Each structure stands twice: as structure tokens, then as C-alpha cells.
Amino acid sequence: MLSATTIRASAPAILATKHLPLASGIRVASCGLLHGVQTRKFTGSTNSFFLATTPKSKQERPLKAFRERSFPHPVYTEAQMNDIKIAHRKAKTWGDWVALAAVRVMRKCFDLATGYKHDSEIASGNKTPYGTNAFHMTPQKWLARFIFLESIAGVPGMAAGMIRHLNSLRRLKRDNAWIETLLEEAYNERLHLLTFLHYRQPGLFMRTMILGAQGIFFNLFFISYLVSPRTCHRFVGYIEEEAVITYTRAIADIENGRIPEWENLLAPDIAIKYFGLGPDANMLELLKVIRADEAKHREVNHTLANLSQDEDPNPYALIYEDGKPHPTKGLDFMKPEGWEKGDIDGGVVEEYMKPGKEWKTGGKPSGGAPTGSGTTTTTSQVA
Ligand SMILES: [Fe+2]
Ligand SMILES: [Fe+2]
């Protein structure tokens, strides 16, 4: 029986995302689950298994009003989001090669777990994902992949931030403002995950995979970060390259009409509020903003891997007072392969490294920070 609040789905293993127009004008989603006939409520439920699957429907439980976010999402323009490209930073050091090899091994396992394949020419950037039907992905498979991907992607920023936090406490010195950027990345990835959970609730198999993967991945990453944080940031940079490839494929699938179920699928409220999307934002816009986030993570982590882990300030936390290209939280000046130290506003990062600078010694900055190429950069807001 269909009603405004409840729908019974009788087709097992059919996906949860086709909208049906109702006479009342309210759109609800038809859903099928992996195991037999299920009833899904669109109202808020205390049982997380029955969380609403219809984004932005009038039946969806309103989000609680919280105070302002600690990590507000930057605003991206449509042109900036459309301009995101698949890119690859060539491995230059032994650490880079180790990171790249680890990502390739993980990718194989990940593809296996989520039933994903794609043309290797697309991954290498030699061929666009547009106009090919090879390795067709269904909406179910995409969502399984996104959920698994995002549940893992939220780990490195938190683990790295935690280690640097403990390091700062233990060694009684400043962190050079890396922690906040790392935690912000973890928060951003978790919001990606929560967004996709509005479209599909994973079954027992996926939950078990996520549990096992997190247990293994967190511990491995934690130990690896203690040994070589630089290699770990490179590793995350390479993972984010893969994430951009995956989302580019999904976006191309929608734009080529290969996922008709998603053409009018609305973004959930949690995503509209966090990403600052319009009230009628759809899945395509959602994937574009998430892909832009991944591209930013790609740049940030490649950049951090280029810096001295103990000495350099986080260039994303500095304030640049002129219009020259420099690292930003938004998409203003993108460098997919990361900023080299010497590229950052005429080498301002190196300026901090000069002997005798207060930053290096962990002392309290007095007044303006050291400058590079006439750029004024302040340190007073970072720790
Ligand atoms: Fe993500
Ligand atoms: Fe990411």
C-alpha cells in the first residue's frame, strides 16, 4: 500500500531511488531492499535501519538546529566545479612510489568489494568517461562504492590530526596550524558519507566490510603516519586522485542519461545545508560539489607531502593579502599536483624557515609574520 508516509517495496534487490509523483505533489522514493519485502518509513524513526531514503521530502525529519559549524564549507562556483579534471602527480621519490603502490593495491580490493570496474584508459586520463558504455554501473553499485569510499576517506585526516595534536601536547610546541585542516578534511568526508546514507542503507555485508576495513586501515595508517607522515600525505593525495576519477565517471553517467533514476533525484537537506546548495539541487549538483571537495583534498595532501612535516606552516591556514595565486580553502587557485614549497607566493613558506624566525622556534609571534615577495602573511590566527 502506498501512502504519503510509507511505501512497501516488493522487488528485492532493486534500488532505492526512483521518484514517484503522487497526486498530492509530494515526491517519495520507491525502495527495494536486498532481502525480501520491506517497509520503509519516510518519517524520522528511532531505528536507523529505517532512516528516510527520500531526500528533502516533506516527510523527512527536520534537522535539529545547531549553532554555526566549526568547519563551514567553502562556496564553489558552478564554473569552478565544472572545471575539475582528472589529474595525476608523477611519483618522484621512493616514498611516492610506496604511496602509489599502496593506493593501487587498495584500489584493487576496493573495486572487488564494490563490484566496480572501469576502463583503465579513463583512469589514466587518456580517454574521457563520456560516450562509453563499458563496465556499466548501476545506481546500487555507485552508492555502495560511494558509501564504502567515504567511510574510509574520513579516517586519514582524523588519524593524522590526532597524531599531530598528541605530538604538540607531548613535545610542548606549536603544530604550525596543520591540525585544523586535517580535522576539517575528516569532517568533510564524513558529511559526504552521511549524504549518501540518505539514498541507501548498507546491508550486513557492507557494514561488515566497513567495520573490517576501518579496523585494518586506521591501524595501518596510524603506524605509517608515525613512521613517515610525508608518505602518508602523498598516499592520501593519490587516493583522492582516484576519488576524482570515480566521481567524474558517475557524473558522466548521469550526464549521458545512463542513470535515469538520478536525473531528478533531489539532494538531502543535510547536504543542502552543509554545501550551501540551492533548495532544488539534484544528484548531479551534489556529485559535482563532492568531486570538487575530493579535488581539494588531492591538492591539500600533495601539498602537505611537499612540505617539511615538522617545520613548515600549513599554507592553507595562512592569510595572503594580495591577489597572487596561493593555496586557499576554496577552488580559486587549484594545483591538482599540489603546491611546491617554492611556488607558494614567492616562497613565503621558506621565509618562515629562515633561522631565527619565531615560527621555527615555536615562540609567540609578535606583530606581522615574516614576509615573502612583498606579501604580508599573519600568524596570529593559527597554532
Ligand atoms: Fe569524500
Ligand atoms: Fe576526499
What form results from the Cα inertia axes? globular
User: How far apart, in Å, are the first and last alpha carbons?
Assistant: 58 Å
**What is the CATH architecture term of the largest domain?**
Up-down Bundle
Percent in strands:
under 5%
Ligand kinds: fe (ii) ion
Residue share in helices?
40-55%
Question: What would you say about this model in short?
Answer:
With 383 residues, the chain is mostly helical.
What does this protein look like?
The protein is mainly α and 383 residues long. The chain has two domains: 6-50, no CATH class; 78-315, Ferritin (Up-down Bundle), CATH 1.20.1260.140. 45% of the residues lie in helices and 4% in strands. The protein is built from eleven helices and four strands. The strands form two sheets. It has a two-stranded antiparallel sheet with strand order 1-4. A hairpin with a 5-residue loop joins strand 2 (18-21) and strand 3 (27-30). The chain is globular and about 55 Å long. The protein binds fe (ii) ion (2 copies). Residues 150, 153, 189, 192, 290, 293-294 line the site of one fe (ii) ion.
For this entry, give a set of tags.
383 residues, mainly alpha, Ferritin, 2 domains, two-stranded antiparallel sheet, 11 helices, disordered N terminus, binds fe (ii) ion
Give the helices and strands, then pairings.
Blueprint: E1 6-9, E2 18-21, E3 27-30, E4 38-41, H1 78-82, H2 94-114, H3 120-123, H4 139-171, H5 179-196, H6 204-227, H7 229-255, H8 269-275, H9 283-306, H10 348-353, H11 358-361
Antiparallel strand pairs: 1-4, 2-3
Bound molecules: fe (ii) ion (2 copies).
